[in-house]
Specification:
Blueprint lengths: L2 H20 L10 H19 L1 H14 L7 H18 L14 H11 L4 H49 L8 H52 L4 H7 L6 H10 L30 H4 L10
Helix pairs in contact: 2-3, 2-6, 2-7, 3-6, 4-7, 5-6, 5-7, 6-7, 7-8
């Protein structure tokens, strides 16, 4: 479970409760089951009419996957693709039979099976690109459920407020009940705006970001599989592999490393020309061998 993302919801709800209690308000006023039923029930009915029950259940399952742990790590994918590349260049593509059982990534497993079947690189790219496009279209339809919920919730909140005001109007003869009745009526609007801007729309934006990252990762996997099918060298395939999780951290640490002290010429100390060390004579060596031969003047 990704508890860091759920912390945002807790902080948002806590800020609303703190703002209510800071001015002397009672938190019990914000707990209105009738307003909550109008907002959540109205949103559920509108989504069932717009998207259908199957897509709504898929959206709930996608929410669980979004805040859960990833199914496959980039490092595992890199290791498997590197091994498959070396095996294919050494023993051929038929030697990759059974390699798809080493991963739980459906796209990578399908690509490895197609490699064993001897499919051409262009046909392999076409088939896998079609799978990626179908995956992206299905995921966008599911994300649209959360976006629709974010647009419907404020309207349901206004509807709940209107229903509450209708009930208040029935007690105009008792002025002591008007203030509390109006306050309770507007709690439905708070529920609608709060659910839309604290839960539904942030979830949709998070799913959009995760979809963009997943599509980029799948494109890199397809490029690596096509390179393996074409028999390209290992260093070219390495460039197409998904980045390792710690690559960004290494790049950040490398960028934050302080620069080396430069000399007057702007070069680092180990490249300075003015720090040459002249060779010293060995005191234990033969003194005769240390003597320089006198220069012989050319004859005239």
């Amino acid at each position: 479970m990704d508890w860091r993302s759920l912390t945002g919801i807790v902080v948002g709800i806590g800020a609303i409760a703190l703002g209510q209690g800071a001015d002397g308000g009672q938190l019990a006023v914000l707990l209105q089951p009738s307003g909550l039923a109008v907002v959540l029930g109205g949103c559920t009915g509108a989504l069932l009419l717009q998207c259908g029950p199957a897509r709504l259940l898929h959206a709930l399952r996608l929410l669980r996957e979004s805040f859960g742990l990833p199914r496959s790590e980039p490092a595992d994918v890199r290791v498997l693709l590197r091994q498959c590349s070396a095996t294919a260049r050494r023993a051929g593509l038929l030697a990759l039979d059974g390699a798809e059982r080493q991963t739980n990534d459906p796209l990578l497993a399908r690509g490895l099976r197609l490699l064993v079947d001897g499919i051409t690189p262009s046909h392999l790219a076409e088939v896998l690109d079609s799978d990626i496009e179908a995956f992206a279209m299905q995921r966008r339809h599911v994300i649209r459920v959360w976006e629709s919920a974010g647009g419907t919730a404020p309207t349901m909140g206004i509807l709940g407020a209107v229903l509450g005001l209708v009930q208040v109007m029935q007690h105009l003869s008792d002025p002591s009940r008007l203030g509390s009745g109006i306050a309770v009526a507007f709690v439905s609007t708070l529920y609608g705006v709060g659910f839309a801007n604290l839960i539904f729309l942030p979830i949709a934006n998070r799913l959009h970001e995760q979809l963009a990252e997943e599509l980029a990762r799948r494109d890199q996997i397809v490029a690596a599989l096509v390179a393996i099918a074409a028999g390209q060298p290992g260093h070219l395939i390495e460039e197409r592999l998904p980045p390792a999780p710690d690559s960004a951290a290494k790049s950040t640490a490398r960028a934050a490393r302080p620069p080396r002290a430069a000399s007057r010429s702007g070069l680092p100390p180990e490249l300075r020309i003015d720090q040459r060390v002249e060779p010293q004579a060995d005191p234990q060596a033969d003194p005769i061998s240390q003597r320089r031969e006198p220069a012989i003047a050319p004859p005239f």
